[in-house]
Amino acid sequence: MDVVTVGPEEIRSAVSMPAAIDVVRNGFLALRRGEFEMPTRTVLRDGAFLVMSTHHRPTASAMIKTLSLNFGDRVPAIVGTVVWSELGHGRHLVADATEVTRIRTGAAAGVATDLLAPAEARTCTLIGAGGQAADQVRAVHAVRPLTELRVVDHSLERADALARALGAELSVDNVIAVADADEAVRDMDIVCCATTSTTPLFSPASLTENAHVNAIGAFRPTMRELPDELLADATVVIDEREAILEEAGEIIHALGSGAVTEDDLIELGDALAAGAGKRTGRTVFKSVGVAMQDWAVASLLAQTFLDQAR
Question: Is the CATH number of domain 3-101+292-309 2.120.10.30?
Fold first, then answer.
């Protein structure tokens, strides 16, 4: 068996954000068509270890990702491996899961933003300046070129550093770090939440009437980034129903309070198939991440690195 190992720098050079958005978008449509065998992820030590796997039937390819997560005292907080294999040959690809996870999580937000955010949206607030944060903005910028970015974090210094770095990278001149989340989201078109918060981050009253919100940070029932009032008032799109009902704290809380029902939740694949149409009012994309997204990014890596090895 031949094993091709791909590190963070190789992943970044091989996978652009627009390409990741395209392949993840196609992945959500394929998931809707039933092309993936995808068990709910295994959660160990109350979310400290995760195992995710999926099999894509048409290509007889499979992906398994293992992660360890430590948001308290480790940088990066998310580490692990992605393993790609195919029945057609014996070569395996092993990739750094930190970079794959960042890219695929950003790409899903990019897919949702492209579908749900107003076409004229150009301003974004990012809440959270951790490892997942930058790719949220990169993905939004890929589908809605930004003219203004605000970054919120419990460390204003870290927020300022990330805002300046992203402004330089993406050529966004109007960037600022803000201490207060309600102030930061006011009058903004798009809000990206990438935190491990256990309480809602802002009041719905601070949002514009047509704001789009991506919430990717909370991945356990005890975590919660969004208030019930926002979910009750918005069109709520989710990545995958079974995973959301088991893991998404804000959705579980809103269902329990009666703010939303399961019928209010629209899977992203269904929303993509239906098309954007003319949406009014607020929209929310809630994601806990599913293995198909990792498979999608890994498929790009396999095309690049395994094809070179054959």
Answer: no
Cα separation, 253 vs 75, in Å, equals: 30
Contact residues for 192 (Cβ-Cβ < 8 A; gap 6+): 109, 124, 125, 126, 127, 133, 136, 137, 140, 213, 214, 216
- Name residue, tokens 């054959």: 310
Q: How far is CA 41 from CA 65, 156, 166, in A?
A: 10, 34, 32
Do the two domains 3-101+292-309 and 109-290 of this chain adopt the same fold? no
How far is it, in rounded angstroms, from Cα 254 to Cα 276? 25
The model's pLDDT over 55-104, given as tens digits with 9 standing for 90+, comes to 999 999 999 999 998 987 778 888 999 999 999 888 899 999 999 999 99
Question: Alpha-carbon distance 213 to 172, whole Å?
Answer: 20
Task: Render pLDDT for 285-300 as a digit per residue (tens, 0 to 9).
Answer: 999 999 999 999 999 9
Given the candidates 3.40.50.720, 3.30.590.10, 3.40.50.10490, 3.50.50.60, the CATH classification of the domain at 109-290 is: 3.40.50.720
Q: Which helix (H) or strand (E) is 258 found in, with range? A: none
| Residue of 72, 175, 201, 53 whose CA lies nearest to 123 | 175
- What number of residues does the chain have? 310
**Cβ atoms of 235 and 282 closer than 8 Å:** yes
